[in-house]
Amino acid sequence: MVVLFLSGHGDIPTAMDARNNGAYDWLVKGMDTDKLQAKVVAAMHEAGLRTQHHQERAAVLGRWNELSPRKKEAARLIRQGWSSKLVADEMNIGVRVAEKYRSDVFETLWVINPTELDRLMRDFEVQ
Fold it and tell me: Which residues of 11-41 are buried (b: 16+ CB within 10 A; e: fewer)?
């Protein structure tokens, strides 16, 4: 959701408060029609981007939830650049199991390396 405020009686502190609390923009009543239309178009574009991000996040979280708790634990280590050997030692599992976890995490989350895994987990707030 994107909120545009339109006011004829607003002041700067109120406008700043609205923006700081998530409003997309604050518009002054009586502004030029072309400017108003441009602001509405920009807000609609932003709403589309936010909707797309929420849909992508839901898809990523769905894939994340397909992983077992142990694979999620491995993913958290792998995203930090840990080798399979270090993951195995930390999790008290064999190296081949750690390699399998790495492979399963990458396949399930559609990433190809720890850098992409880190970006995905950061961008979509995967814990």
Answer: eeeebeebeeeeebbbbeeeeeeeebeebee
φ, ψ of residue 103 to 5 degrees: the values are -60, -45
User: Which of 55, 54, 104 lies closest to 75, judged by CA?
Assistant: 104
Q: Side-chain half-sphere of 117: how many Cα atoms within 13 Å?
A: 23
Contact 81, 114 (CB under 8 A): yes
Residue 28's DSSP bridge partners are 7
For residues 117 and 48, give the distance between their C-alpha atoms in angstroms, rounded to a whole number: 25
Rounded to whole angstroms, the Cα distance separating 50 from 28 reads 25
Tokens representing 43 are: 């807000």
- Label residue 103 by pLDDT band (50, 70, 90): very high
Q: Are residues 88 and 50 in the same domain?
A: no
58 and 74 share a domain? Answer: no
- pLDDT category of residue 25 using cuts at 50, 70 and 90: confident
